[in-house]
Amino acid sequence: MSAPAPFDAIILGAGGAGLMCAAVAAQRGRKVLVIDHAPDPGRKILISGGGRCNFTNLGAAPDRYLSANPHFARSALARYTAQDFLELVGKHRIAWHEKTLGQLFCDGSAQQIVRMLLDEAAAATIRCDTPVRDVSHNGTRFRVVAGDREVEAPSLVIATGGPSIPKLGATGFAYELAKRFGLRLVEPRPALVPLTLGGEEALFRELSGVATPVEARCGGAAFREAALFTHKGMSGPAILQVSSYWRHGQAVAIDFLPQAASGWLRETKRQRPRARLPAVLGEQLPGRLADTLAERLGIASELGNAPDKALEAAERRLSDWRFEPNGTEGFAKAEVTVGGISTADLSQQTMEARKVPGLFVIGEAVDVTGWLGGYNFQWAWASGVAAGQAL
Ligand code: FDA
């Protein structure tokens, strides 16, 4: 085994947060080593946004993030904004576009973002395909045994992300390290993940492939986007968003007609008493969904023969249809992890552990989770910059 090499900082994880942190620290003249067990850096960036990387969101404010401490992300997000990242993207002449809801994507390929980060971090040493075998701390320096080498430095950055999508190299290693260094954990759960339906509701799985715009509500959050029925349950952006707020035993409420005015069904009865519910719903919803909902509402007759009270009840149910998912599709399908290393043990200015000077935690490993739509990368960049400026 070769002699320990001198570095100012060792960053574990060459994802978005680790690479951004390496770039900032190396440009400040720090001698930085990045270690990753995956064969290449930035694998999640490469597959993100359908290969075009939704690299930030123009609305990336702290209220778009979940954390046990909703204020924790404020400082880092204010000091490194979506505009700051756009400047970097502009400097590297990467063309981009806004798709919807402030979500910014590359015109070309996510590879451009990885290339940009590697160029920015050119002064850092990046070792991929290097499993980390041991990490220890003697009170002043961190020692890492990785691959066939041993390295040490006064600073160590945990940037190994969360356990979502293990086949991309994701692990719960950050949590193991946290425990070793006495940092607390907020229970990690799969987030931005499809929900599964069982029992009576499994019948909705027959609608697999049907998508429609809805308002989905859970845990005090509400999202107006598309929902998609799948062969296991429900997905689509609205469902992925509420999944981050969902806990076992809770219901997810769906408004299938979020644009409809109150009393619309009674009004339809007055104007078209001979119309039937499946046809009326089918004017606003996909046919298969309209048929299933009408069947479950049990209004088979012409609207003119249905009592107003029944139509009012149907309308209420359509705007607040309760599903009780029996689970999620788990970390294998989750875009991110909600929970993680507790922010209570970290400085919100620098991401440094309060009780272990020199130890930093950034990116998805931290208990800060963004909504769908570029928010998670913005947190990776912002927390990486905060630590990179402090190393
Ligand atoms: P990240 O997981 O990116 O990096 C961690 C690194 O640590 C990896 O390179 C991994 O190999 C390495 N590592 C893990 N364990 C290790 C160990 N034991 N030893 C050594 N190295 C180890 N977000 C967004 O804002 N816009 C988007 O478009 C998308 N799209 C998207 C699609 C899909 C399919 C997924 C799974 C996720 C997204 N995301 C997203 C979320 C986004 O990818 C995620 O929030 C960031 O990649 C987190 O960045 P980090 O650097 O913290 O972790």
Number of domains: 2
Q: How would a crystallographer describe the biggest sheet?
A: 7 strands, antiparallel
User: If strands are numbered along the chain, what order do they take across the biggest sheet?
Assistant: 19-18-15-16-17-14-20
Q: Could you state the oligomeric state of the chains shown? A: single chain
Globally, the shape reads: elongated
How would you describe this structure in keywords?
single chain, 391 residues, alpha+beta, FAD/NAD(P)-binding domain, Elongation Factor Tu (Ef-tu), domain 3, 2 domains, 7-stranded antiparallel β-sheet, 5-stranded parallel β-sheet, 12 helices, 28% helix, binds dihydroflavine-adenine dinucleotide
Describe the protein:
This protein is an alpha+beta fold and 391 residues long. The chain has 2 domains: 5-189 and 338-390, 3-Layer(bba) Sandwich (FAD/NAD(P)-binding domain), CATH 3.50.50.60; 195-328, Translation factors (Elongation Factor Tu (Ef-tu), domain 3, Beta Barrel). It has 12 helices and 23 strands. The strands form 6 sheets. It has a 7-stranded antiparallel sheet with strand order 19-18-15-16-17-14-20. It has a 5-stranded parallel sheet with strand order 8-3-2-12-22, with helices on one face. Helix 1 runs parallel beside helix 5. The two termini are 27 Å apart. Bound molecules: dihydroflavine-adenine dinucleotide. Dihydroflavine-adenine dinucleotide binds at residues 12-18, 36-38, 43-44, 47-49, 53-54, 132, 159-161, 164-165, 169-171, 173, 335-336, 363-364, 374-377, 380.
